[in-house]
Design brief:
alpha/beta, 46% helix, 5 helices, Nucleotidyltransferase, domain 5
């Protein structure tokens, strides 16, 4: 079920439990997950996209394995705030995923996420090949950490 806001999404979650983030692209899905207390995001893996049914089967397996209680999905809004073909593609993916997975889901603005991750990897002097291997799951982790930081109560 798609929740309208991050705050409402956070209220839907149990007191403890892992949240998984998805950076959905045309060829890959980067995954990250939180710890049980939702303090720290960690990159998990990158799924090479194939058919939707196979992608969902992999996601469902991971959701069960890690006892995920909610999904944060990167929403590729254009820099000017407009919505393009990628936002529609993501919405379609989320709508179809919602028919297969009974978890609260929220869309998270992912503007600048990949750019920030790319910059950090360049500063770490990673090779182009290594950056390509890591970028999707690191972007998912970066998004998830932003969400976790936004819901912390101090």
């Amino acid at each position: 079920m798609l929740i309208d806001s991050a705050a409402d999404f956070a209220r839907q979650l149990p007191a403890q439990g892992r949240v998984m983030s998805l950076d959905v692209g045309d060829t890959t899905i980067g995954l990250a997950m939180s710890d049980l207390l939702r303090s720290i995001a960690s990159p998990l893996l990158t799924i090479e996209r194939s058919k939707f049914t196979k992608d969902v089967a992999t996601l469902k397996e991971l959701i069960g394995k890690y006892q995920i209680c909610g999904l944060l999905i990167g929403y590729p809004v254009n820099m000017d705030g407009s919505h393009g073909p990628r936002t529609q593609s993501t919405r379609t993916f989320v709508s179809n995923l919602g028919k297969q997975v009974n978890l609260p889901m929220v869309l998270w603005d992912e503007r600048m996420t990949t750019m920030a991750v790319e910059r950090a990897m360049l500063e770490a002097d990673l090779s182009r090949q290594r950056r390509a291997q890591l970028v999707d799951k690191l972007a998912a982790s970066y998004m998830l950490q932003g969400f976790l930081d936004s819901i912390k109560t101090t």
